[in-house]
Here is the input.
Amino acid sequence: MSRDSVVDAAERLVHSRPFGEVTIRSLAAQLDVAPMSLYRHVRDKDDLLGEVVDRMLAAEWEPAADPADLGRWLTEAAERLRHLLVDQPAALHVYLSGPVVSPAALRRMDAMLDVLGRAGLDRTAARRAYAALHTYTVGFAALEASRSGWRPSPSDGGTAAELAAFTSPEQFAVGLRYLLDGIASASPAAGHLPTGPDPGGRSTPGGRAAESAPSRERRRGVSRPG
Amino acid sequence: MSRDSVVDAAERLVHSRPFGEVTIRSLAAQLDVAPMSLYRHVRDKDDLLGEVVDRMLAAEWEPAADPADLGRWLTEAAERLRHLLVDQPAALHVYLSGPVVSPAALRRMDAMLDVLGRAGLDRTAARRAYAALHTYTVGFAALEASRSGWRPSPSDGGTAAELAAFTSPEQFAVGLRYLLDGIASASPAAGHLPTGPDPGGRSTPGGRAAESAPSRERRRGVSRPG
DNA sequence: GGCGCCATGCGTACAAGTACGCATATTGTG
DNA sequence: CACAATATGCGTACTTGTACGCATGGCGCC
Here is the structure.
């Protein structure tokens, strides 16, 4: 048994069972060892999940869009992280547990800073913009995940419906555009970052899905991010 | 024993002990009853924390700024929620566990929608703007809380310092301004929402603290939002 | 070839949330 | 006042993460 073999097994478990069933004990059973044996190879459960999530991130983060198309590339990068976090409760858990400094996360950050730099932002402005985008993305994913599967209690009136609209893919795109707009207008040298027409002027929502949403969204496993 | 008395005791406990020590068992001890007895009055621990957090929110959410000063009022509203969430792990936990529809939360939402409406946004645009602001605020607080108390592992290089800057009060203000800028520019009729000069053009940070930060920040108790 | 040491696996135990169902108390009804 | 129905407190037990320390096995060195 080695750290790698433990992480491998954990990865398989995460991909094959609802998050609520990913426990140290079930993992140990899968490896046919006693639960406490795992702790010779990982510091604790979060350490283990961190490794697994790094692999998922490495496989999913990179946008397919042309990096020269700055706005679209940034939008897709945010969209991909959001998708991963909502789709994989383990990933959200890791992102909410502390700063993520795994290799893939650092590569992603560097790539985004690079693109923001090419948009005309200096190093400081790029960092600020990245931080704002990242915060918004993780925040949105956290709220969306915690809401999915939520049934409005019978006591709430129309409020519930109102809240549901807060965590739609369209709303994510809208907020992202606000941010990109604001970032561009704060930086004199920045070219126009947002791509395409306003994703929803003032008409009803359902008009069109988010520009780069990778088709259908699935839900899986337990949501509760805590 | 009644629901109210349980919530009262829980509130006292939350205010007097680190979050990690706020347990059903310690609460039961405080009330001098058996742990399971509490479950006659609250659905589960989250239900209980929800009540407590509503009280905290009710006491803290309302900005002192003049609501006519739209940008400043909105900024302070966001700042106050951020402060509460970072300061009180219980509050963050609740906000990350599901939609918060407690009375104070609904009052706050209505007030914000109202101010956004006065800024010239129609109902739909106001909702979108509110959702974006709310997402950003909760997201920022979640990241800030999970980072506070974090010690960069000796292996990380300058990355750690870079990350630290992501969750400073200044950075919160910067991102908020991006959003308000973007919101204003997306709505033809909207007056200028952001207040005052750019909170940090491209020079070094320390220029000035967030406009309405309520003085000194404290930290208390365990942070891990899990 | 023998001996000691560290790496590795694990048995036990504890604190947390809470499901389940019993027992007592309280209230409503004739 | 007697009895039923309901409300309330709680003992027990299960699941989870993980601290602690024992035990064994393989490896080095003489």
User: Anything to note?
Assistant: The longest helix of chain B spans residues 123-147. DSSP finds nine helices and no strands in chain B. Confidence is low (pLDDT under 50) at residues 200-226 of chain B. Residues 1, 33-37, 40-41 of chain B lie near DNA strand D (CB under 10 Å from a C1').
